[in-house]
Amino acid sequence: MTDYSALKFTSEHEWIRLEPAAPGSPTTATIGITSYAAGQLGDVVFVDLPEVGAELADGAVVGEIESTKSVGELFAPLTGIVIEKNSAVEDAPELVNSDPFGEGWLIKAEFTALPELLSFDEYQALLGDDALSVDLDGTDFDGADSDGSTETDRAGA
């Protein structure tokens, strides 16, 4: 289960999970796209991620995500350096749809400062009527059913 209150979000529908750092080490972040973004894309069929060592600049294009509906750009939500990319997503892009907050993560990066990001409640407000469905404790997302469809898919969007 994902603890959404522990994540930060961007208005471009990316999520960031901050990872604890050892004293004196740079802070790291795991980055992915939200289930809302995955639902809007439809079935993801190709993901192009930046290579390990690539420099990220907040807001700059760092990759590409292609679906049966469209081709979109992936934007860096922070400035830093890629320390790991999720090769499993490149091999099986459908992970972005089936588990966007888990196995569908995209990259891990080291950074020294975070831009202003949205809390879960702020991201929910941004989505309005399309807000993510969670249990009252905010930890259990039901965006993807066992068949991989999302609420957005069922609504015909």
List strands and helices in order, with pairings.
Blueprint: E1 7-9, E2 14-19, E3 27-33, H1 35-41, E4 44-48, E5 55-56, E6 61-67, E7 71-75, E8 80-85, H2 87-91, H3 95-98, E9 107-111, H4 120-127, H5 151-154
Antiparallel strand pairs: 1-2, 2-3, 3-9, 4-6, 5-8, 6-7, 8-9
Summarize the structure.
The chain has helices at 35-41, 87-91, 95-98, 120-127, 151-154, and strands spanning 7-9, 14-19, 27-33, 44-48, 55-56, 61-67, 71-75, 80-85, 107-111. It has 157 residues and is α+β, with helices and mostly antiparallel strands.
Task: Name its key features.
alpha+beta, OB fold (Dihydrolipoamide Acetyltransferase, E2P), 157 residues, 18% helix, 6-stranded antiparallel β-sheet, disordered C terminus, 5 helices
Q: How would you describe what is shown here?
A:
It is a single chain. This protein has helices at residues 35-41, 87-91, 95-98, 120-127, 151-154; strands at residues 7-9, 14-19, 27-33, 44-48, 55-56, 61-67, 71-75, 80-85, 107-111. 18% of the residues lie in helices and 29% in strands. It has 5 helices and 9 strands. With 157 residues, it is of the alpha+beta class. The strands form 2 sheets. Strands 1-2-3-9-8-5 form a 6-stranded antiparallel sheet. It has a single domain, classed as OB fold (Dihydrolipoamide Acetyltransferase, E2P) (Beta Barrel), CATH 2.40.50.
- Residue share in helices? 10-25%
In the residues, how many domains can be counted? 1
Any low-confidence stretches, pLDDT <50, length ≥5? 135-157
Number of helices: 5
CATH superfamily: RNA polymerase II/Efflux pump adaptor protein, barrel-sandwich hybrid domain
How would you describe the shape? globular
Name of the CATH architecture: Beta Barrel
In CATH, the topology is named OB fold (Dihydrolipoamide Acetyltransferase, E2P)
Structural class: alpha+beta
